[in-house]
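Subject: design request, 342 residues
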């Protein structure tokens, strides 16, 4: 459901002006959550962050960490005590659980009810863009979570992103590995699907400003990046940024399963994650519109190329998940594969 701009409730305007929001960030150890914490602190909010394992928490001044498995209503209830606004950044994709769709729905119902009970005044949920055609279980589940959260009494704003570009993003890591680890690229038909990737920094602006956007009965917006690109264009652009010319070999009949095995072999993704990515990309994954940027008076600052360049530079500083073996593989591949003429 879309809404037009309305005046904000008095408590809300006061809280924002006074910078007194007490904000709960779930999924705070994740790719998006980690970047959101300092941005909220910089805005003057008081932040509580959740993880299932406190040893994963990073000490940030002004952030209180609490243990919370969102499947457990008692832990959720404790985490929500005294909270004004909640960011929901948890997903179960790649958990390997066969009933994760049901589990995500139950979690959303529990959060919807517990948040209302705790007197929360705003929820912000980061989900995924709805595809034009058939839907993967993951995307179906992401949309269902948004619907459940928006159906409750707490004003809830759902933001829908396609691939988020940044070092540490699971979907970015898959396309980056595909582009960097092979001397030639297999191009199944799904790589011609188009999407609108968005840089992590722009997502963070979208999330932080979501606290100010009216959402009286629940509302959703797409948050597209500035470029519309096919999977093939994304792979070629990443390879080119590293000075590689990677010949493409169309394999239009490669099945979802074979594609997923191929991704599992080549990239750092596990099979279930790879499969969800392939299934999610069977058709175009394009936003409906970019009205959200007008709503918050902001335009995405990062082109795909600029965001990808930065993500590649950042990963150079970080020890790769597969360590020396991964680095060696890539070095060998890059030595034998064709180079771009400069
Ligand atoms: N990355 C992308 O390209 C992308 C694109 C579109 C939309 N999104 C959406 O953005 C949101 C954040 O994604 P992300 O990439 O930051 O995810 P991520 O890096 O995989 O992090 C997931 C987070 O979920 C937490 N979590 C998982 N199961 C949990 C449970 N049972 N209870 C409590 N916490 C749990 C994990 O925390 P602990 O393990 O510490 O408990 C972790 O912090 C998701 O809603 C996702 O759908 C992401």
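Subject: RE: design request

Done. Sequence follows.
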């Amino acid at each position: 459901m879309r809404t037009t701009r309305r005046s904000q409730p008095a408590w809300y305007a006061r809280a924002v002006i006074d910078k007194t929001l007490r904000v709960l960030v779930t999924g705070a150890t994740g790719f998006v959550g980690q970047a959101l914490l300092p941005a909220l602190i910089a805005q003057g909010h008081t932040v509580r962050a959740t993880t299932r394992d406190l040893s994963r928490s990073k000490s940030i001044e002004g952030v209180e960490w609490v243990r919370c498995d969102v499947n457990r209503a008692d832990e959720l209830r404790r985490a929500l005590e005294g909270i004004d606004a909640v960011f929901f950044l948890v997903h179960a994709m790649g958990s390997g659980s066969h009933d994760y769709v049901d589990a995500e729905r139950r979690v959303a119902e529990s959060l919807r009810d517990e948040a209302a009970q705790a007197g929360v005044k705003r929820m912000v949920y980061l989900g995924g863009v709805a595809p034009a055609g058939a839907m993967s279980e993951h995307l179906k589940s992401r949309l269902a979570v948004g619907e459940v959260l928006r159906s409750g009494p707490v004003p809830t704003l759902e933001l829908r992103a396609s691939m988020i570009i940044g070092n540490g993003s699971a979907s970015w890591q898959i396309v980056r590995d595909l582009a960097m680890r092979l001397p030639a690229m297999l191009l199944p038909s799904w790589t011609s699907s188009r999407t609108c990737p968005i840089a992590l920094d722009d997502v963070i602006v979208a999330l932080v400003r979501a606290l100010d956007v009216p959402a009286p009965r629940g509302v959703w917006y797409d948050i597209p990046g500035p470029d519309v690109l096919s999977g093939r264009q994304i792979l070629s652009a990443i390879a080119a940024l590293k000075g590689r010319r990677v010949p493409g070999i169309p394999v239009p009949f490669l099945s979802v399963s074979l594609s997923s095995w191929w991704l599992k072999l080549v990239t750092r993704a596990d099979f279930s994650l790879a499969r969800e990515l392939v299934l999610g990309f069977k058709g175009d994954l394009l936003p409906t519109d970019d009205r959200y940027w007008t709503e918050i008076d902001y335009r995405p600052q990062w082109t795909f190329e600029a965001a990808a360049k930065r993500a590649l530079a950042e990963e150079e500083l970080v020890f790769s998940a597969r360590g020396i073996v991964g680095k060696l593989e890539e070095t060998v591949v890059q030595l034998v594969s064709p180079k771009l003429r400069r």
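The domain at 10-164+197-222 is CATH 3.40.50.720 (Rossmann fold).
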